[in-house]
Amino acid sequence: MPLQYDYLEVIAEKIQSLFKEYQTNFSKQSIETKSDPLEQLYVLKIESEKRLDNDYYNGEIDDLIMIFQANVTDAALELLADTYKESLLPTIEEIKANLQSMNIVDLETDSDVNNSSDLGRELSYELPKLYTWIYTGRYDPLLDYYFERFNAVTKGKFKFSENDERNLIFLKVNLMLKGCN
Hints:
By secondary structure, the protein is an all-alpha fold. The chain folds into 2 domains: 103 residues, no CATH class; 67 residues, no CATH class. The chain contains 9 helices and no strands. Helix 2 packs antiparallel against helix 3, helix 2 packs parallel to helix 5 and helix 3 crosses helix 9. The longest helix is centred in the first third of the chain and has 26 residues. It is elongated, with a radius of gyration of 21 Å. The model has no long low-confidence stretch (mean pLDDT 92).
């Protein structure tokens, strides 16, 4: 019996060795740097999928892409949105550094993309339903109700509307949960 376990240990060590070699090879390949955050996120998306295809990093990058793609048309929200986007720049840099070093760990910078606030608890029914709609595009007959609730709790500050694009709604939800109301 001990020989079988020894053999498993040898296999495990070989796998770890191959993985270390894989990490080392990719960490030597520089990730392109872009000055525009959205362009940088596109590069990071490709690199993340190439390097380890980690669901956590892919999800964070996808969420950040949605936020940076959002085109804010309401002048009253422009400065707020720009300030919020700027606060996310360290998260983009951390993702890039971690992918570059092939060190896939929980992010230290708080992206606030999945913020849990008092308002988040108050809207604990509506938010998961809205996120499902945002991420999947599946029809939800209560979408108007969610927007009415969000507009009611924010006193109409964000003007949630079914006419908004999904990425703009996602940005507005994040601004709302961040406490920018």
